[in-house]
């Protein structure tokens, strides 16, 4: 169903457009289309603050058009329209209606190169967004030996021998527990999307060969970076 606007150079026309654009990004959907270009051409200037939806839409369309036509503008002035008393040929409106899609076709058909470039930009944007969303955490672990005869140097070597993407071992120290037993406290930095601390403990630190020295592991502190 066609969308109709009129008198977009007047306050009443802009009010109608502003109400129509409430909750919408563009005239015909979530992406810019020829409909937006046609309406944009009919609006004489950027709507004021009293028309927030229309003003936001105008800026969005203007930004897209600017990116498609990067040449430096020298500035063009357009004089007033022809006097209302001058009659227009009867056949012209019909012809204009027939050629409506061509008059303001500023985009035209995309070439294969443009489509490929657009797809590459979209893929890069998604990858960048995903990368930004991937956070890091600082974790402090308690690693407990079996008894006071456990070689704590080899215990730490066993811990640090575990390597995986997104895992970085940090500083460590031995802390007395009692009865001559000491535990290893060790820091590590992880990429949240790549490393699960629970899996690290259950599938690496407390199974062979590490369980020759390690009895159990506990998370002492877990902080987002």
List the helices and strands and how they pair.
Blueprint: H1 11-20, H2 34-42, H3 52-68, H4 91-98, H5 100-103, H6 112-133, E1 136-145, H7 152-160, E2 167-178, E3 181-191, H8 197-205, E4 214-224
Antiparallel strand pairs: 1-3, 1-4, 2-3
GO molecular function, one term: guanyl-nucleotide exchange factor activity
Keywords: Elongation factor, Protein biosynthesis
Function: EF-1-beta and EF-1-beta' stimulate the exchange of GDP bound to EF-1-alpha to GTP.
Order of helices and strands: HHHHHHEHEEHE
User: Could you describe the largest sheet, including whether it forms a barrel?
Assistant: 4 strands, antiparallel
Q: Quick one: CATH superfamily of the domain at 136-224?
A: Ribosomal protein S6/Translation elongation factor EF1B
The CATH class name of the domain at 136-224 reads Alpha Beta
Architecture (CATH level 2) name of the domain at 136-224:
2-Layer Sandwich
Tell me roughly what share of residues is in helical segments.
25-40%
Q: Spatial order of the strands in the main sheet?
A: 2-3-1-4
**Total count of strands:** 4
Which stretches are low in confidence, meaning pLDDT under 50 for 5 or more residues running? 80-88, 93-98
Put simply, the count of helices is 8
Can you tell me the overall shape? rod-shaped
Through-space gap between termini? 52 Å
Query: Beta fraction of the residues?
Result: 15-25%
Give the integer mean of the pLDDT values: 81
Query: What's the gyration radius in Å?
Result: 33 Å
How does the helix and strand content classify structurally? alpha+beta
CATH topology of the domain at 136-224: Alpha-Beta Plaits
């Amino acid at each position: 169903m066609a969308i109709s606007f009129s008198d977009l150079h007047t306050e009443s026309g802009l009010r109608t457009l502003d109400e129509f654009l409430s909750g919408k990004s563009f005239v015909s959907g979530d992406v810019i289309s020829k409909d937006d270009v046609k309406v944009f051409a009919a609006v004489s200037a950027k709507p004021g603050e009293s028309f927030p939806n229309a003003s936001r839409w105008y800026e969005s369309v203007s930004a897209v058009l600017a990116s498609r036509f990067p040449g430096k503008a020298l500035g063009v002035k357009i004089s007033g329209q022809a006097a209302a008393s001058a009659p227009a040929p009867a056949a012209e409106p019909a012809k204009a209606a027939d050629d409506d899609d061509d008059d303001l076709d500023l985009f035209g058909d995309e070439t294969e190169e443009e489509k490929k470039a657009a797809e590459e930009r979209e893929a890069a944007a998604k990858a960048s967004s995903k990368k930004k969303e991937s956070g890091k955490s600082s974790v402090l672990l308690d690693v407990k030996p079996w008894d006071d005869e456990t070689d704590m140097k080899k215990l730490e070597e066993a811990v640090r021998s575990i390597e995986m993407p997104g895992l970085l071992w940090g500083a460590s120290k031995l802390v007395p527990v009692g009865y001559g037993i000491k535990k290893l406290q060790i820091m590590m930095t992880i990429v949240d999307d790549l490393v699960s601390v629970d899996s690290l403990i259950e599938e690496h630190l407390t199974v062979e060969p590490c369980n020759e020295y390690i009895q159990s592991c506990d998370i002492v502190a877990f902080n987002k970076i």
